[in-house]
Amino acid sequence: MKHDVILTAKGHAGTQKRMEQEFNLVKLWEQPDRAAALKAAAPKVRALAHTGHSKVDAALMDALPKLEIIANFGVGVDQIDLDAAKARGIVVTNTANALNDCVADCAIALVLNTLRKFPQADKYLRAGRWKTDGTYPFTTSLGGKTLGILGLGRIGEEIANRAKAFKMKVRYHNRNRKDVPWTYDPDPVTLAKNSDVLVAITPGGPETDKLVNAAVLDALGPQGYVVNVARGSVVDQPVLLKYLQEGKIAGAGLDVYYDEPNVDPAFFGLDNVVLLPHMASATNETRTAMGLLQIENIQLKLDGEAVKTPVV
Ligand code: NAP
Ligand code: 8YV
Q1: Domain limits at 131?
Q2: Residues 91 and 179 in one domain
Q3: Does residue 114 sit in the same domain as residue 167?
Q4: Which of 20, 22, 68, 260 is catalytic?
Q5: Are residues 231 and 244 located together in one domain of the fold?
Q6: Which long-range contacts (CB under 8 A, 24 or more apart) does 81-85 make?
Q7: CA of 109 to the centre of ligand 2 (A)
Q8: Catalytic residue among 278, 287, 296, 305, which?
């Protein structure tokens, strides 16, 4: 017997196809009357598969009184009201570990591209400027520089491992010190003061809102760089923009923003920023692995077994 499962949004095509094979899938975004579709599904639906960054709030949970699991396609669950889920006995799962390597690769790529300005140099060549203006201006080396990791969790540790291969020194700040070979700093300002490049890879949500603020950017200073692969909310975006415009920091590499996909166009004209469209985990292999894990968690829960990656 196929179980009814609600999928909230169009996401990874392979995952959706697999869900269509495994479940009676209600594609919420395709329903002409969302409220009526939820009402029709309510007596039977025990699982909600979420993809994207829209809110999963208490009202949605209340519309589905038989809900037992919210399975997120992604590790960050800042868009899901975890307290509301807990209060209703609904398990929330994510895709922890499935994307560590790709997100860490992306973080390092942003460090490399932000310091070495490869995207800007590519544009320079294509515009014919190598011939007219000569060699591209010198950039900044990674080797010997200190990488400060704000949020040394599953992904942060993979970023640290990669940074070592680039001969960078690594420091970090978490609320809790870890038993790792990297140097601990007690707060984000101290970490920034001791770093040449600061990478944010904490969860999003209220606890980390604007963790990278003016004080942190001041501590990083005019020779310092910021990379954000966490959530847009973790960096004070208007302050970052101002600091980039005024040369109060050297540069930034960003994968995440306030109000995605509406990126402030003021960033577009800046030569000291590299911009990616929230794509750190977006490879065929990783998105497939994320989808399989999301589906596995749903199946386990619907079969009355323990899920693989619960969010604590
Ligand atoms: P994780 O293993 O839970 O690691 C998060 C780390 O952040 C933990 O070490 C945690 O340590 C630290 N942290 C949490 N709150 C903090 C705070 N207020 N101050 C300082 N440190 C704090 O999570 P993960 O799997 O590495 O994923 C991290 C995040 O990356 C996700 O939640 C998501 O937002 C983001 N992400 C982005 C993309 C992308 O496409 N750009 C892809 C995947 C993930 P303590 O608890 O000790 O503080
Ligand atoms: C995805 C992410 O962009 O896992 C996360 O937290 O931000 C990314 O992997 C997103 O979850 C896809 O919906």
Answers
A1: 100-275
A2: no
A3: yes
A4: 260
A5: yes
A6: 81/55, 81/56, 81/57, 82/311, 84/57, 84/58, 85/61
A7: 17
A8: 278
